[in-house]
Amino acid sequence: MSSHREAPEISKDPVADGTDTYAFVSPDRPDHVTLIANFIPLQKPDGGPNFYEFGDDVLYEIHVNNRGDATRDVSFQFKFSTKVRNDKTFLYNTGPITSIASPNWNRPQFYTVTRIDWKGDKVRKETVLGKGLRTPPVNVGPRSTPNYAKLSSEAVHAVKQGARVFCGQRADAFHVDLGSIFDLGALRPLNEAHLISMPNMNGVNSVQSYNVHTIAIEIPIKQLTRDGSQPKSALSPKAVIGVWATASRRKSRMWDKDKGKYVGHGPWEQVSRLANPLFNEVIVPMAEKDEWNARPPWDDKRYTKYVNKPELAGLLPVLYPGAFPNLAKYDKPRADLNAVLLTGIPKGVVPGFQNFTGATQADMLRLNVAIPPTAQPNDLGLVAGDAAGWPNGRRPNDDVVTIALRAVAGLTIPLVDPSFKPDGAASAAADGTTNTNAGVTDSFPFLGLPGGGYQTAPGTTKAS
């Protein structure tokens, strides 16, 4: 999946496992940018009595680079604390939760959001944007959370620096046919062309009906650029920011029998990071995935060889005999993928567009904040002519699996090598899925309401 259970060690620590990162100019407030980091993958809505929640012992962060060197210039830190109101009951709630301050919610969660401005690796300024902020409960069901849309809206908080924040459960907007892709690289719409042929069919969304926990912040563009301006020209280097998310734990943990929980000690150590979808999932070899999660993006040059010659590009001609003859013969380094994933796309490749951040090769979402939201977005993003979509940042509706498949299959090679002619199958490559979970909304925090435990049956989702 995008980054759900993408590495052996983090798959054992779901509360710190980042699943998707998004960065886009807000469609309802185009002078703002929305940054979203999702955690805790594959949440079954009926997961009681101990429902999902953020980790009090995890430091969640969204980082922004605005100087083109892949280091963090601004970080937004989120720290959570959980309270148990009634220690004599096993119940998550003792009656209907009609507001996020309801005493019937037995395990409310609160958080502090802090902005860190960096100078090199030193903290230059630390600003608490909000504290004591409430999350909503999870969507238990119509008796326990009878008006979930209201609970969700109460959890959108205005904080300092003109920002809004939301932290809580949402529907997972990512979609992918895992059952097919990991069955020897099969794409159901192209089943008949596979080495082991089967009838063509529509894809099956493996993330159907699952929820995630979302950290979202919407902040004025001027608060993120290097000089405090709102760039108007898409060709200005100041218009591009790099974004990634991380989760960190204390260097050591010990079981405290008196407290009945693990207690962390020592400095924070990064255990998860995520920017471009599918990077660690598909590009990085199994033996290096955990190490990748612990490293900063400015140290990503060591992974360049896997981007320049991705394993999947070599497998496609083998798995689909005769479908990718031009790709099979192409032996040059994949400069197109290098630009998309590691440096950004420079001027002159796509007319009127660039999201280049310099020579430092690093996995970041690169967002050109001078490109306005699209009135009618195309979920295939930049490759379909919609410059407001991935790989220019990433919107919740962008079909990143299809975009990535077609890019790896060679569709983007002519951007940097006009002599290459993509195979016809490159523009047809797709896993055949759509977001069949709760739909994306048109207002902050943009991801749909989570499926409720009572309402959701296996394979379906319903928020209310």
TrEMBL record:
Residues 1-23 are annotated as: Disordered. Residues 1-15 have a biased composition (Basic and acidic residues). Pfam families: DUF4331. It comes from the Bacteria. This is DUF4331 domain-containing protein. It comes from Nocardioides islandensis. The lineage of its organism: Bacteria, Bacillati, Actinomycetota, Actinomycetes, Propionibacteriales.
